[in-house]
């Protein structure tokens, strides 16, 4: 059901992977919806989601080490939420987006989250 976004090495790489991931989901839409809606599918995804969060926390820390652990956790969880299958489903069902357009929207939102975190970190460095 699509590519996994794990351990990005750069912001640009992360944004590209998000776009590729969302676009790839369109080809397996029925399967993905079935997995997402089943209790078994949610259980299977728990470990993958734990790993995703761990890797995203490492990435966010590398981008904005000045922020508190709590702020970095909020950023990482927000990035994962925006770049998730559930976000793809929301944009398909409620915005009329295909995977390509949904990926562009998700990537832009993630970029904005990262830019806001970097601006906050820059302010902390000045203090």
Protein described:
The chain contains 6 helices and no strands. It has helices at 11-25, 29-37, 39-63, 69-82, 85-95, 99-126. With 127 residues, it is an all-alpha fold. The protein starts with 10 loop residues before the first helix and ends with a helix.
Low-confidence stretches: none
Helix run count: 6
Distance between the termini: 46 Å
Number of strands: 0
Please compute the radius of gyration using only Cα atoms.
15 Å
Q: Provide the helix percentage.
A: over 70%
- What portion of residues belong to β-strands? under 5%
How are helices and strands ordered from N to C?
Answer: HHHHHH
Q: What would you call the shape?
A: globular
Query: Overall mean pLDDT score?
Result: 92
Q: Which structural class do the helices and strands define?
A: mainly alpha
Structure summary:
The chain has 127 residues and is mostly helical. It is 80% helix and 0% strand.
What key attributes describe this structure?
mainly alpha, 80% helix, 6 helices
